[in-house]
UniProtKB/TrEMBL annotation:
Protein name, UniProt field: Glycosyl hydrolase family 43
Pfam families xrefs: Glyco_hydro_43
UniProt region (Disordered), positions on chain: 320-344
Organism: Plantactinospora endophytica
CDD domains: GH43_Xsa43E-like (cd18618)
Gene Ontology molecular-function annotations: hydrolase activity
InterPro entries reported in the protein's UniProt record: Glyco_hydro_43 (IPR006710), Glyco_hydro_beta-prop_sf (IPR023296), Glycosyl_Hydrlase_43_Enz (IPR052176), TAT_signal (IPR006311)
UniProt similarity note: Belongs to the glycosyl hydrolase 43 family.
Pro residues composition-biased segments: 328-338
Length: 483
């Protein structure tokens, strides 16, 4: 087994050091960009939406610079009504919340039930073994939280427990049945919870289908489909080194699985650990995760970030674009973001007549939301030094109905400029033809240009782009919409 240094933390007792919670860090405004808070280091975020408010429950990293161990004693809460501006409510639970625990306030998650809020935590109990899962309860999302059980819900003595009993995710289904998944060291586990939320209901099982599971599961449901996101650390498309992790996900039609692996939804982040949660607020979906991006940050000095998450029409998730600006007031369907609708581009294969070797056609449909036409932060497609007409094309394995596109043009203020004109074509089965009834093909910079046409059913959609004299052309995003 590979050595993971952050799992070698000494189990020193610190509960007595905490006279209370919420005292050292007073509530106050946090930032409106990523990381969402920089006054302290925060990790392992677990979002929860109650009404129009998103709460983020996160551990606090207190390791001094150069200390390569987790020093974690408190769990903090932040909240926002727009996923953009955050209020820090200070520590709302700590190791002292659990009289039987001694150290290591690791990843947690809050799940509501019948007006009460159950805070499931990874914490180092003083019993045999190392990490346990405890549960605190409160009548409000901000507490006060008290130990709900008087001992661990899950420990090393729980039959068939994980090699590392950390990172609980709890989900209450529409029928009232609650489920808990947890685990580390590649050992995912699952069980039902009784309606009191503090006892397991039946045996602990090993869920099937969570390919490359490492730790940090996160369960949710959307449109009747169950999703399990989790940290993986394989080098088969996930990370460049197995010291790091990405977020893979799987779906199932039954909350206990079996699960079908669907891919990567969050790539490698700047910290070695990768821990995330997914939530919907006011009709938009968000990925809440942590990085090492705060000033002075590191693998044991992490910080929580929030970015938009987009679903495809078939329920699969697009890979999240990590930003330093956060969701911002505008991105997403509506003003400032991509036009609303079902974007078929994300399920297409992109090709082109020419792409510069330092740019990529993958930029076209990777779900980025450009800030302006010079924003290469989510890759760019460019065809310098070609001039005249070049094309980009989407291919689908079977015919799709399409009736409009949106283009976000690339302009680097050097060899690539906004185009002179563009024309959409489709494959009729034997030739390319101009789409019928095409509106003017927009060539404005710093915005999405929507071009409409009569619906066509095709396996290939082509965009011919004609340059201005002396320039090449490029695109940051190209979206193609279902009628
Ligand atoms: O923060 C301590 C541990 O690191 C968490 O429990 C894991 O998920 C990883 O993020």
């Amino acid at each position: 087994m590979r050595s993971r240094r952050w799992f070698r933390v000494a189990a020193g007792g610190v509960a007595g050091l905490l006279a209370g919670v919420g005292l050292a860090i007073p509530a106050g405004p946090a930032s409106a960009a990523n990381p969402i808070i920089t006054s302290i280091y925060t990790a392992d975020p677990a979002p929860l939406v109650v009404g129009n408010t998103m709460y983020v429950y996160a551990g606090r990293d207190e390791a001094p610079t150069g200390d390569n161990n987790f020093r974690m004693r408190e769990w903090h809460v932040l909240s926002s009504t727009d996923a953009n501006t955050w209020t820090h409510h200070g520590a709302r639970a700590s190791i002292a919340t659990f009289p039987w625990a001694g150290a290591d306030a690791w990843a947690s998650e809050v799940e509501p039930r019948n007006g009460r809020y159950y805070w499931y935590t990874s914490v180092n109990g003083r019993g045999a073994g190392w990490m346990d899962i405890g549960v605190a309860v409160a009548d409000s999302p901000l507490g006060p939280f008290t130990d709900a059980k008087g001992g661990p819900l899950i420990s090393d003595s729980t039959p068939n427990s994980s090699g590392l009993n950390i990172d609980p995710t709890v989900f209450v289904d529409d029928d009232g049945q609650a489920y808990i998944y947890w685990g580390g060291y590649w050992g995912a586990r699952a069980a039902r919870l009784k309606s009191n939320m503090i006892e397991l209901d039946g045996a602990v099982v090993t869920p099937q289908g969570l390919s490359n599971f490492w730790e940090a599961p996160w369960m949710f449901k959307r449109n009747g489909l169950y999703y399990m996101m989790y940290a993986a650390n394989d080098t088969n498309g996930c990370v460049t080194s197995s010291s790091y992790a990405c977020q893979r996900y799987a779906t199932a039609t039954n909350p206990m699985g079996p699960w079908t692996h669907r891919g990567i939804v969050l790539g490698q982040v700047s910290s070695t650990t990768n821990h995330a949660g997914v939530v919907e607020l006011n009709g938009n979906w968000y990925m809440v995760y942590h990085t090492a991006n705060a000033p002075g940050g590191g693998n044991f000095r992490r910080s929580v970030a929030v970015d938009r998450l987009y679903f495809n029409a078939d329920g699969t998730m697009q890979r999240v674009v990590q930003t330093s600006t956060g969701p911002g007031p505008g991105p997403g369907p509506g003003p400032g973001g991509p036009p609303a609708g079902t974007n078929l581009a994300t399920s297409a294969t992109a090709t082109t007549s020419y792409v510069s070797s330092w740019e990529t056609v993958a930029a076209l449909n990777n779900g980025g939301v450009p800030a302006n036409s010079a924003d290469r932060s989510n890759l760019a497609y460019g065809n310098w030094p070609q001039q005249g007409t070049q094309w980009v094309e989407y291919t689908w394995p079977s015919a799709r109905n399409v009736n409009r596109i949106a283009t976000y043009w690339f302009d680097d203020d050097q060899g690539i400029d906004l185009p002179a004109s563009c024309q959409v074509q489709y494959w009729t089965g034997s030739a390319y033809a101009n789409v019928p009834g095409q509106s003017s093909c927009g060539v404005a910079g710093n915005t999405y240009n929507v071009t409409t046409f009569n619906s066509v059913s095709t396996t290939r959609l082509r965009l011919n782009i004609t340059s201005r004299s002396g320039f090449s052309t490029g695109l940051l995003e190209w979206l193609a919409y279902q009628p």
